[in-house]
Design brief:
Rossmann fold; 12 strands; two-stranded antiparallel ribbon; six-stranded mixed sheet; alpha/beta; globular
Length: 270
């Protein structure tokens, strides 16, 4: 689906634009996946990228005349869950067509399945699934496809991943909005069963970032959780880092791409 005029205008205005000398930051507090979150975005990003995106979604949904499904794909530590929730909040503040943000994480296999199954990787290795949690092989892609198809027919209940239980809880969130924004690492991934997602969204977004930037954010997150720097580095080498590289290298093109800069601000990719 081609972007509406309001979004094309934002693209033309921002693409190729030089670095902003002074950035004005605004802080926000809201709940993401059941946890209180504080986020900050630049005023320039809000006015020149996020608001045009939300208005563009609204125009696309009205032109379509039925529910609009948007995928927001990005590697770990890009703030995709928070951004999705922020865009949903903006849709209310701007009195646009309501956006509801939901996540891919509720489609992990259940913990008991992960603990008792192995994965045959494309390089021929067979590893316990518990060593690969968060990787594309640990998601139930057919279940996700069923839910996406259900979005076209009605208002399904959406599963969530409970980070306190470290497990999936089925059918927790009623999806009722005219615009559904689904965020996750692997929504544009081009390996295995993930290829079947092609064409399932009306519009797709992707967040790019330098791996060095994501690594520092992920290490900081683990150390805030109690790990030492050395322990966080080890986890990154075998877990987060693998997923970051696979997402960046293995995701297909999106309709609209942003780049997250080192300071957490965003720019539109050319």
């Amino acid at each position: 689906m081609d972007p509406p005029p309001v979004l094309r205008k934002a693209l033309l205005k921002n693409t190729g634009k030089g670095e902003i000398a002074v950035k004005t930051w605004k802080e926000f507090s809201f709940v993401v996946n059941g946890f209180p979150v504080r986020a900050r975005y630049t005023q320039e990003n809000i006015e020149e990228i996020f608001k045009p995106l939300v208005r563009g979604f609204s125009e696309m949904q009205k032109a379509k005349g039925e529910r609009l499904v948007v995928f927001l794909a990005a590697p770990p530590a890009t703030g995709k869950s928070t951004l999705a929730s922020f865009l949903a909040r903006l849709s209310q503040e701007l009195s646009c067509t309501p956006v509801q943000a939901v996540g891919l994480d509720g489609f992990h296999f259940h913990q008991d399945y992960i603990l008792t199954h192995s994965v045959a990787l494309e390089d021929g290795r067979i590893l316990p699934m518990r060593q690969l949690k968060g990787s594309p092989e640990t998601y139930d892609v057919p279940h996700f496809l069923e839910k996406v198809e259900a979005l076209r027919r009605g208002d399904p209940l959406w599963p969530v991943y409970d980070r306190r239980l470290h497990d999936v809880i089925e059918d927790q969130v009623p999806v009722t909005a005219p615009i559904v924004l689904i965020e996750g690492n692997w929504l544009l991934f081009q390996e295995g069963g993930w290829r079947r997602l092609a064409g399932k969204a009306d519009y797709t977004l992707f967040i790019q970032a330098e791996e060095t930037v994501l690594k520092e954010r992920l290490l900081r997150r683990k150390m805030q959780g109690g790990l030492t720097r050395e322990e966080a580095e080890a986890f990154y080498r075998t877990g987060d880092g693998v997923n970051v590289r696979r997402t960046l290298a293995g995701s297909g093109p999106a309709d609209f791409s942003l780049k997250m800069e080192e300071d957490g601000s965003f720019s539109i990719c050319k």
